Amino acid sequence: MLDDFMTRATLAGVGTALAAAPLGCFVVWRRMAYFGDATAHAAILGVALSLAFSMPIFVGAMIVALVMAAAVTLLTGRGYAMDTLLGVMAHSALAFGLVAVSFLSGVRIDLMAYLFGDILSVSHVDLAVIWGGALLVVALVAWRWSALLTATLNPDLARAAGIDPRREQLVLTLALAVVVAVAIKVVGVLLITAMLIIPAATARPFARTPEAMAAFAVVLAMVAAWIGLQTSYQFDTPTGPTIVCVVAVMFAVSSIASTLRRAG
Fold it and tell me: If one looks up domain 5-263 in CATH, what number appears?
């Protein structure tokens, strides 16, 4: 069954949705969208390093994403506003990554595939990496769910309950790095943040509890991945951007429905 490229692509899209959607809820709640963007942009530098040192792309992307996250954490509060710091580091990392790729000799690289994804070329190994990473993220978020939620809603309450908000931030950082490394093959570094944020934002108006929002976001992301893949196949459009277009349409419909419900 896995010999069919569409089956592999569908499983890759579902696996990426499973990893990105629950984590995306915390990104939305904490207003960390730009942080996710910076981490994703840094991944292209990880791709260059992976190719230069003959490492798996997943390993290089995750290492650079972790370094980026650690650097942002260390530099925060040292004279620069968070959005300024993230803007500088995100675009600098992307630029250095693109320049580094240009210096690689004897290595064939499809840069567009890493920027916008190439889900239709997912191999059996890629599929194992995507699902391994997705299950790791889900297990990590499930294990720390209560502590993460408390630290997100009220850091002071978290400290009173013996929860270290900085430790929970580190857990989110680790999970975010894994998601970036997992999703790079499916939607590319420029669109990863969209898969993190849009399903969670779409689910938010209709969820009564944080758990319901996370579950609804997962379902929406999986459905969007499947619809986007089928649409891309039918109309010969870029698959990664098509998937993001589908979740964007879902968000628009969700916003309209939420507005009409409040008006009524």
Answer: 1.10.3470.10
